[in-house]
Amino acid sequence: MVLRQQQELKQTQRLSPLQMQVIKLVELNTVEVEDRIKQEVEDNPALETTDTELSNDMDNEDREGSEHNLSQEEIILGDYLSDDDIPDYHINATHQKSESNFIEISYYDDKSLSDSLLEQIGLLNLDPRKQLIAEYIIGNLDENGYLQRDLLSISDDLLFQQQIEVSPLQLEDVLYEIQDLDPAGVCARDLQECLLLQLARCEPTPPITLATEILTDYFEEFSRKHYEKIIRQMNITPDDLRDAIAEITSLNPKPGNALGGTLQTAMNNITPDFIVDSYNGQVTIQLNNSNIPSLHVNRSFTEMLKGYNDNKESMSADDKQAMLFMKQKVDSAKWFIDAVRQRQHTLQRTMEAIVNIQYDFFLTEDESQLKPMILKDVAERTGFDISTVSRVSNSKYVQTNTGIYPLKYFFSEAMQTNEGEDISSREVKMILKESIGNEDTGKPLTDDQLTRILNEKGYVIARRTVAKYREQLNIPVSRLRKKI
Asked: What's the CATH architecture for 414-481?
């Protein structure tokens, strides 16, 4: 064996301490970055926090040149509240939740909502006609327990499908019967009605009475978090409002999802990294920086360091060692502050691109409006590397008017229709789920049959892809779905 020496020229990339910090911080979610900041402040005496929120400084910088009128391709960045609308207690409150802050609740009962309501309605001894109407209304509730269809449409359906002639007013009488069932708030037609139904079952204490009045007469102001306006118009104190908000926070905005949970319980599970709000055809994006403090370098360290620099010649060896220590700590503090700022900028830019691409969804929150989107699409819009977009999207959540979603939810591969139109794979999964949900359980649809259904609807898809999507939906094969 002959050993040979040879020279080889390689180009390698060395990441600076700042770049390393940014990469690590971008991977963290809001809760993790809060803990990381606390740890850094404890470890580095040159790094300090102030009571001023980091988000205020950073949002002001990022908003310059970024805020503009909304359109299909443009998103307003920044908070949707004016400073006048945010009293101190609101900024720091743990219960600052409105319609746009209600999040998904992850507690489920083994018995389905429909089964539970049908069981309860059977105990009311309704006449056969009302019983049939009640069952039809219950069948139209969505997974959150809301009646999204209007009563006139239901009246038309009953006439054509069941040959039952019933007016919307008569339907409302049956509706009220269902609204008296458990869970409280079920069969509401909107969020306002859902919350009021729950408050109506509470003991009429002063906070409950005030909460009811707020939701009845000032729901729009409450949903927009215009708390100062509510205080002025109702002539109440901030403490009164705080107590009323605490009562509202304890309510369940999605009774169909949680037969035993509360909003406050769910809030403890997931902290969103972004809040995206849509109102009157406008969409706003807000980074959740409420618990991230403002950071700065300890002034005494910088002043002492300047003193040492001015007297280098007369310094002892110990003084020089002390200066080197302080310089290292100051540099480390500066790198960390810059890294946090770059993290926030990166997250904001990435979320802006996602909302731009999925604008129709965030405006309507209609899942069918989701467009095909991969990491590369976001990377091209932001100018970031695909790996950076991947780090931002991992373990991050966005809160909307109606729920909370992982960022990964908005990414899906593209498919095509017969006409060559790009569609999201999620749209195909929705059709699969709907088709299986409506199948004859005695003769469940096979993957071949599901493929034909999709092909007939104009979707170009292979059987193996249908099988993959079915598995991703956690739906078993046809023979395991068969009920005798």
From this structure: Orthogonal Bundle (1.10)
Give the residue extent of every domain in the chain. Answer: 17-77+287-386, 414-481
pTM exceeds 0.70 for this model: no
* Percentage helix, strand, coil for the chain under 3-state DSSP, each rounded to 5: 55, 10, 35
The pLDDT > 90 percentage for the chain reads: 21
Catalogue the long-range contacts made by 110-116 (C-beta closer than 8 Å, 24 or more residues apart): 111/259, 113/141, 113/143, 113/145, 113/183, 113/186, 113/255, 113/256, 113/259, 114/138, 114/139, 114/141, 116/182, 116/259
Cα separation values, 417 from 76, 421, 460, 475, Å: 33, 5, 6, 24
Per-residue pLDDT, 209: 93
- pLDDT, tens digit, 9 for 90 and up, residues 275-285: 999 888 889 99
Spatial contact of 361 and 426, defined as CB atoms under 8 Å apart: no
Q: Characterize 217-251 residue by residue with b for buried, 16 or more Cβ atoms within 10 angstroms of its Cβ, and e for exposed.
A: ebbebbbbbbbbebeeebebeeebbbbbbebbbeb
